[in-house]
Amino acid sequence: MPTLPTVPQPSPPSPAAPAPTRPAQAADPAAIAKAASDFEAMAIGQLLQPMFDTVDTAHDAFGGGPGEEAWKPMLVQEFARQIEARGGLGLARPIYDAMLRMQQEGKK
Predict the structure, then answer these.
(1) Are 36 and 92 in contact (CB under 8 A)?
(2) Sign of the CA dihedral 93, 99, 101, 104?
(3) Can you give the residue range of the structural domain that contains 90?
(4) Are 92 and 84 in contact (CB under 8 A)?
(5) All residues at 6 or more sequence positions from 96 whose CB lies less than 8 Å from its CB, including other chains
(6) What is the pTM assigned to this prediction?
(7) Cα gap 19→44, rounded to integer Å
(8) Looking at the domain assignment, is residue 62 inside a domain?
(9) Is residue 58 in some structural domain?
(10) Is residue 99 part of a domain?
(11) Domain for residue 6, yes or no?
């Protein structure tokens, strides 16, 4: 049986070496606002999902089936986006402030 060549392993970083850091990026308020809004919509979707899971549509005239199972998660997410676009739960603003603060602290 042939032996495989050994691959040199990288040496572990020395304790005195500084930890690698991400390069500081300029805070883009529009991108941060979109991320905060998207996060709030996702959180609202997580709150709505159990409500839709408990609805028994199998006995309705148009309910049930594989089509409903495929489209229901998208419907719930769209409801969540619409709720967030109309004020939501008020999570986006504190999340935006925290993300902006973290960006600014990372630049120091």
Answers:
(1) yes
(2) negative
(3) 29-53+69-106
(4) yes
(5) 32, 33, 36
(6) 0.66
(7) 37
(8) no
(9) no
(10) yes
(11) no
